[in-house]
User: Fold these one by one.
Assistant:
Number 1:
Amino acid sequence: MEEQKKKIKKPLGFARLIPKKCIACGARCEVECKPLAITMNDVGEPIIDLEKCTGCRRCLKVCPVDALEMYFTPEQLKQLEEWELARKASATAPQAAEVRPVEEETKAAAKFKEYSGVWVYVEQTDGKPAIVSGSYWGPGPI
Ligand code: SF4
Ligand code: SF4
């Protein structure tokens, strides 16, 4: 149960170079990589150190020819699948505020019964009740 509750972290993947796409623009990707995961080879193409890559995608954004892409390891793909399932499950699960305990529902229904047959007239402007209305709110005569 505790295991199920554990939050699954979305894997970010790693950047990689798409073969033959780099135009050696002057190391824009290297400059943009804050964790210093990129070094350039002797023809001006990036070499990405996976130990340092955080999957931030900054290098992808600055590359003028879209020569970089993200990829996921098999472990990350599995984790991504689990993350997606957990996300869908939490999206469809009723929120705590929406789930009213049966006991609470019963109490509310009983309370409303006390007021059956009571008519309430409230002066309103643009959907807002007039201030004086509050003076008349209270249990109705039984
Ligand atoms: S994804 Fe981020 S950390 Fe990884 S190589 Fe690109 S800029 Fe560097
Ligand atoms: S930003 Fe793109 S074109 Fe420039 S060096 Fe990096 S991969 Fe090559």
Number 2:
Amino acid sequence: MKSTPINGEVVKKILAQMNLGDLGAATIREVVKVVDLIEEASGEKFIRMEMGVPGLDPVSIGVEAEIAALKRGVARDYPSIEGVKELKEEASRFVKNFMNIDVDPLGCIATVGSMQGGYAVFLAASHLDPKKDTALFIDPGFPVQKQQYQMMGRKYTSFDVYEFRGNKLRDKLESFLKEGNINSIIYSNPNNPSWVCLTSEELQIIGELATKYDVLVVEDLAYFGMDFREDYSVPGKAPYQPSVANYTDNWVMLISSSKVFSYAGQRMAVLVISDKIYKRDYPHLKERFGVGVFGTAIVYRLLYSLSSGASHSAQYALAAMFKAANKGEYNFVSGVKEYGKRAQIMKKLFVENGFTIIYDKDMEQPLADGFYFTIGYPGLKGGELIEKLLYYGISAISLKSTGSAYVDGLRACVSQVNLSMIPMLEERLKAFNAENPIK
Ligand SMILES: Cc1ncc(COP(=O)(O)O)c(C=O)c1O
């Protein structure tokens, strides 16, 4: 066996022990486990690109506010399910300051991460109208959201946006919507995993069609402001984080603290519901959950049943971080720009060593450098590529699980690769390229 940066016998042994078959079909957490085991058995550190965990310290304003809240004794009390007043008000200001969208604090709701906000919305959206039994994902997307649909036993469909950018998006979306069975359109922007950023023209198309066909848009802003080609960081000043909310009233947004404030461990986010949708009465929702008003059903039926609110102290943390951003005292975009720098260097190294960047453009513009990028290697299928890279101490996940049409590609996450690891990445990629010549 040829010598590779990671002992080949160890890799083989762990792969046999885990017995996952095609790694292209493995979940993120399964790949994490394989890499943990190889690192432990070989004593070698990996360039870990498989999981989207924040690689920066949590914003200290949040940590301090949370400690202060705990010292005040908030741990004793159940938090209000809809969220504490400070958080609701600062969230509403944040949406105004950085998106130029008006929303009542009533519709800004604390959730246990965006995972929970999404789940509650998906549950409500799939019971708005008995004829509309299917959600539409603009893929590629975050695989766990589809797992949530599987858990609920509700239907979804999807398409890969890559071939349908710009005006082509209209016909593609309409081909689904005219069937009359779609209840919601879901996407993340910037996109996990491809880092595609939908343009204002595309958001306008989505918004207009959402109004025309009366469907709800779920805009997942887990990477709020992180299209670093623009500076969205100045409160109250354009440019603003682009949003479908400029073009329709039929929206909800998921704004997570996990990546923007590196606060993933505390599981805190806000679900923001447009004033019109919050108050809208859906007879079918009433039949199913006993309450017809969308916002009331979400808060007092769904979130109440799921967790009866979100961690009290973490709500004060997010309120403080929003407040500092709103007042211009904390620049949340500068705080995470580091990811863009890493992506730029890493993408260059991959390309120099024979890899291709799969999702490479937003229309005519080169894609932004951010939290994720996508790679392929000529002649290797997704699962094979993941497996081969393990011998070189590099880990990533397959695009297959994300609904991408480019199933032979991988998603690479930059967050755990700090700049001091770049020389090691370069050395390993050179070795990989030399030993896997492109035919
Ligand atoms: C697109 C997207 N949505 C939601 C989430 C989950 O966010 P949270 O940590 O707030 O639950 C993630 C996390 O990776 C994500 O990438």
